[in-house]
Every structure is written in structure tokens, then in C-alpha cells.
Fold this protein.
Amino acid sequence: MEKISRETELRESYAEIFVDAFREELAKLFDTPPEMKLDFHESKPLKVDGIAIVIGLTGTPSGRAVVYMSDETLKTFAQKIQTDEAAEDAAEDAANIFVKRGADMLNETFADKHLTLTPPGTICGTGIKIASHKLITFKITATLSFGEVCMNLGFAEGD
């Protein structure tokens, strides 16, 4: 990993909180904790094939979270959580839970932070590009028995 600034290190501590929240919520859904990986991600457009659920992070720190997965993973994901909702709606609801839990944990950990969420927006397709302009971004990968569910987490460069 390249040398990163103190500000990026602080943002990484925020991302680690989201890793824990993501792991906990996936373990609740699927009765087994997934394998998790956190990587610093260059602040360039995120490319997605499948479904991407975008949730804005407002307050301190501000930024955005994108929960995404392939179409194949989406189908199995929706089947395994046994819902009557359309697969896209089920993924959107789950993404909102994952990110909300991370925001709650961040607020509990850092008393001076107050992070809230915007409603999720869902994009489905091939070759989706989501801008990461002026964000310090991290990729969280959860490996499940049926595929990967990822979260790209971006925080604004200033508080």
C-alpha cells in the first residue's frame, strides 16, 4: 500500500468500523461470518457490473457508501434471505441496514462525530461508473459461500 496521510489513516479507522458492522450484519443474515478484506482504493471512478446501491453519508464525516454485487450473487443473496421482495429491493434494504449499522457504530466510537444517511438509490447494469471525486475511498469485500458482496466507502477529505 502506498504511503498515506494522517487524515487517510483516520478515515481508515472509520472504514474498519464499517468492516465490523458489515461482518456482523451478514453473519446475522446467513448464520456464518463472511471472510472480510479491507483495501485502500484509489479515488477514481468505481466500476460495477450488476447492482450498486448508493447511500450518502451526511454530517461528520461526510461521504458515500456503495454496496454492490454481481447479478449472480444478487439472485442467490435474495433467495437466501427468503424475502417476497424483488431481488433489487431486498439488496437495497440490506445495504441500508449494513451502512446504518456502520454509521451507528462510528457515532458510538467517536463522540465528536454525527453521521447520518440519505435514502438509498439503486443502479443496475453493466459498466456502471460511480465517481469518487475528492473522496478517500476504501473497498470492503465480504466473501460468502455464493459470491462477494462489496462496499466501497468514501469519506470527504475534510471534516
Summary: The radius of gyration is 15 Å. The beta strands are 35-41, 46-60, 63-69, 114-117, 121-130, 135-144, 147-156. The chain has a mean pLDDT of 90. The longest helix spans residues 6-30.
